[in-house]
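Quick start: load a record and inspect it. Here is Response regulator transcription factor:
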Amino acid sequence: MRVVIAEDSVLLREGLGQILARFDHRVVAAVADAPALAAAVAEHEPDIVVTDVRMPPGFRDEGLRAALALRADRPGLPILVLSQYVEQSYAADLLQTGDGVGYLLKDRVGEVTEFVEALDRVAAGGTVIDPDVVRGLLSRRTGGTPLERLSGREREVLTLMAEGRSNGAIARALVVSEAAVIKHVGSIFTKLDLHQTPDDHRRVLAVLTLLRDASR
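Running the structure step on this input writes:
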């Protein structure tokens, strides 16, 4: 898999490159700012982009805005965004662009296998939100929002859905049957009023409901 990395920290940028090389992925460009990221993607047409949220010159959300612009120009380009801090609004903005996006905390990079698995899920068109972000959001008070309708088990299933897990993977994690997971997922969609349409991906919409609830 061909990867473009955008990260202003030299150490992290080099570290990401070494990790990806260990798993037979090829870094075709490693840059330090948003304009260079746009140029690298135009030149190399990568299979996935990994970018920091905050980059020069302002160190605010330049990387995120670059990611959103890339998705607008190249719908479906897989992008994995790394952040030092939990910003649920950033994750929500990414999810609004469709499948094939991820939002991970930088600490996750140290858990090499989990990080690469998340990268692969995003590259394959999946959606991944950092598990620590999801658990933190679900632990908050949700009175008066659709999330309060969910049972404890349904919240566990939603957490794993947000991590990009398939029904089979959720079943293995919770030590239940896949049929039970399918039933829980259906119940989540019903309780969150997510009716099936030809254009909507309800798993993504369910996670968006979580992120929007936390930003209220």
